[in-house]
Amino acid sequence: MAEQSPVSTNGRAGGDDASNGVLEQLSDDQLRWIYLIMRRIRRFEETAEEAFRAAKMRGALHFYIGEEATATGVCAALDDGDFITSTHRGHGHCIAKGARMDKMMAELFGRTTGYCGGKGGSMHIADIELGNLGANGIVGAGIPIATGAALGSKLRKDGKVTIAFFGDGAGPTGAFHEGVNVAATMNLPAVFVCENNQYGMATHADFANAAAIHNRGPAYGIPSASIDGNDLFEVYATAKKAIDRARRGEGPTLIESRTYRHKGHTVLDQKNYRTKEEIAEWVARDPIERFVRAVNESERLDEDDFQAIDGQIEREIEHAVAFAEASPWPTVDVIERDVYVE
Amino acid sequence: MAVTTAQASAPETATREIFMSEALREAIDEEMTRDPTVFVVGEEVGVWGGAYAVTQGLLEKWGPDRIVDTPIAEAAIAGLGIGAALTGSRPIAEFMYSDFMGIAMDQIVNQAAKNRYMFGGKAKLPLTYRAPFGAGTGNAAQHTQSLEAWFAHVPGLKVITASTPYDAKGLLKSAIREDNVVIMFEHKAIYAMRGHVPEGEYLVPIGVADVKREGDDVSVITYARQTHHALEAAEQLAAEGISVEVVDIRSLYPLDTDTILRSVRKTHRAVVLYEAVRFGGFGAEIASQIQELAFDDLDAPVLRVGAAHAPVPFSEPLEQASFPGTAQVVESIRQSLKGVY
Ligand SMILES: Cc1ncc(C[n+]2csc(CCOP(=O)(O)OP(=O)(O)O)c2C)c(N)n1
Ligand SMILES: [Mg+2]
After folding, report:
1. A139 CB less than 6 Å from ligand 1?
2. What pLDDT, on a 0 to 100 scale, did the predictor assign at position B13?
3. Rounded to 5 degrees, what are φ and ψ at A32?
């Protein structure tokens, strides 16, 4: 059962696969899009892991596998021009905001055709045109940036909303407090989405945060919610309500989405700070499988729909890897380029 | 000031080789044994064992009151060090990456560095900050910087860095025993470098440079990982009959200007080598001191070799070319010998 904060924006209880009427509000195209995005995230990362293990890429890779419903559910409730800020664990946010997997893969491979021309890597993928203001290597740093984007929208009256994605590990940072407090005082169109996957590296979220993150809403005078982050429908419904509210000029909302990373902190993490049982328990609550079960039960999409999407994704993945591998390495003359506008 | 070398101060019989990370761990462990007020505080220093395994096993040995895991809160970590030091403890506060010290800048620069002075000499801060730095690991722009010059610039802070496990252990032990704020920058590309560390107690004093290789034709003045590029370059050039002296400063502040000047007065040529962005980097201070104090001894302008004017790029060919490597050091030494840049 979801622990509900006193000012929860929604009344749904998590843990089951029933969508409590949310599924019915989504069109078949939306359902297809949601499945497409969640599976893309999963397959992109499985493929990246293979490439890493084959020594085709280097650096720090943080996998989002197991958390797909949060990025997907939130971004499903966004309009195209809206903004997000992301984290070190950013592949899911990128894909959910519409990023191309070939350009992402090429970035992980360090090639010129990547999103950042190879200069950023996994932790720094951004696509400003899509409204993705960037993954971030600094925990918590995206929160004040999201507040700034929301201030810009308010001043320009562009009607856009900004999402700040961040982890439970960002809850203790000063950036969290400053960013959320300012957004609340200025009544900005921002939604703060904490992806509580229970751990920041080996540190448990409850060890790091003196009070649950969703319980901090009242301290800032803003609504907050604690939701089952592996329930796509609950994520979508909660995010939609918060986004609509922000767009109406009624100010920010804080959402804590409880989820779990199936993999280690980075691709190299083999430490034993989680029990096998705990991991198995959460793998059994796989957000994609739960979504598929609910959709199947509703008889809205059938096996052919899912298979067609899976087939499309496999072709995209194959292309992404081939594209990345065939792409040229950057040459050293670009090292000092892009530091400033010339 | 006496020149001490690792070889000279180590017992001749000892041949034990350990990793830099192990040497640092021994320093911490020995000082914790020696002084019950010493404790470690930082992110993932306990259960995880430190992002670069420096504190591995110490939680099991010393328990959570002396190996203190914190949430992600760099300003708090810096402040925990200050407050505990002011009130009688001897903290070792770790930043997981030196890049994250930006978040703690006020605590370090406006508080730790200035408390004693502002309070008219009445406060004492026996505080050590440790922080991994440096590029070459594919960790991209926010996890690879060399920001040591920021801190060496601030009166009230001492700044040290080691190129060998021997120096790392001896320097860190000295830092922990200091009643001043010392920041130890540890180059992450050499944590897994093995080197000779004798059994038993020794210290490497803060503020004393070390001549890592003697030579007559050119002095390369450097620190941390770049010391190894300088040594490799010296080895290559020796085959051509060029004799290179390598001075590892080990301490940015206080700086052992005497050892640097002694070397330059012998070779008459200086290449200052560092991994930070060349512009405005710490090498500019070294170069400036050399020209002020040994101008008449120089046969060529002092050359600075540093990183590109850019954040550290992710892609391997870009990253590797963005900061000095052995080939570039060799080239720079040749330039210094020609005297034309
Ligand atoms: C300011 C800062 N401190 C420390 C780190 C090192 N670090 C990277 S990810 C991480 C854990 C983050 O946990 P959380 O926010 O819960 O995100 P998750 O990895 O669980 O997605 C830490 C400590 C960092 N990148 N930035
Ligand atoms: Mg987490």
Report:
1. yes
2. 54
3. -60, -45
